[in-house]
Every structure is written in C-alpha cells, then in structure tokens.
Amino acid sequence: ALAGNAVPPHASDEQADVAPEAGTSAAEAQALPAATRIDFPRPSRASALEASPDGQRLALGTSFGEVYVADTRTGELTLVSSIGEGTVADLSWSADSQWLVWSEPVTSFGSRSRLRMASVAKPGSVPVDVTDGRFGDKSPVFTPDGKFLAFLSNRSFDPVYDGHSFDLSFPSPIKPYLVALSAVTPSPFGPSVDPA
Fold it and tell me: What is the rounded distance in angstroms from the CA atom of residue 78 to the CA atom of residue 122?
C-alpha cells in the first residue's frame, strides 16, 4: 500500500513523488496500479482538493478562482466554474458523488463569499448559486440524507455593548445555517404539516 512518505524532489525535478510504505517489497510496489497524471491547461495553484465518496472523481479549487473535476480513471479534467480571481475553498461532495458544492469569493479581498453547487453527473451543467454573496459563507456540507446543505455564515449582526469602552461589538457573528435543496422539503425546525 502507498503511504504519505513523500520523497523530496531532486534539483531538476519540481514534483514530489510518493514512496511505498515501509516494509513493502519491490514486487508488491510494482503490482500497485500505475498513477494517473492529470495535466492542467495552464499553470495553476491548487487551493482545495476533495475526493468524491465513490472515489471516481477529484474536485480541485484553485487560487485563480477555478473549480475543476478530474476523472480518476481516465485523468480527464473538466472545468466546472471560473470566476477569474480569488481562492476557491471548502469543496464538498454529496453522498452519491453527483453534486459538488464550494465557497468562492465575491470580492477580490475575500471578505464576502458565496456558495455554489453543480451537478457533475451532467457534463456542461451550469453551477447554481446557493447563496448570493452578501455575507461570508463557508464550510458547506451536504446532510447525510441529502435533503439539506449546512454551512457557516458570517451574517449575524447582533450588537452588544462593550464592557470596557463605550462602543458596540459583534462577538459572535458566525452561526450555522441550513438550506433545503428542494422546494418540497419541509423545514426541520418548523411545525409538522403531516396529519397525525
């Protein structure tokens, strides 16, 4: 099995290699499947990497505002979204590996961000805005049942008087939020509409 024992790159080599786990024989190491090289269309800088639950795809966010999905079997790389600048972060897959959600900046200095999601099962599908970018939305994750998207957002502006100076402060602006992914999904917090 391969482990994360990185071998430092040589002076003429700009890529680190992964060495077999200690105690693995040469025959066992050669019996492992060959690595698949994934080439990018232009120089890039990875900011986030997330494997799909089924292991068939890798999602990659870049520091240049791009989201790519790579097929782990063929090495084919598909551009899902590009905003031109800013670091894409917090990639997350749905449990069925069909949907990908991420956080991308709305402003160049990154104080506000929005959540977007795309169906990777349908090539060429257009990403959907989950939030509009008025706040700092981060850390999206699908709930285990796939009905909701949970995330953290810097949008709670409940001022309190400062105990040391005559001023107002916002001590806890980040709170968890939940978005239903279907119009027919009832709120988990509201009253039940099912006749009992």
Answer: 12
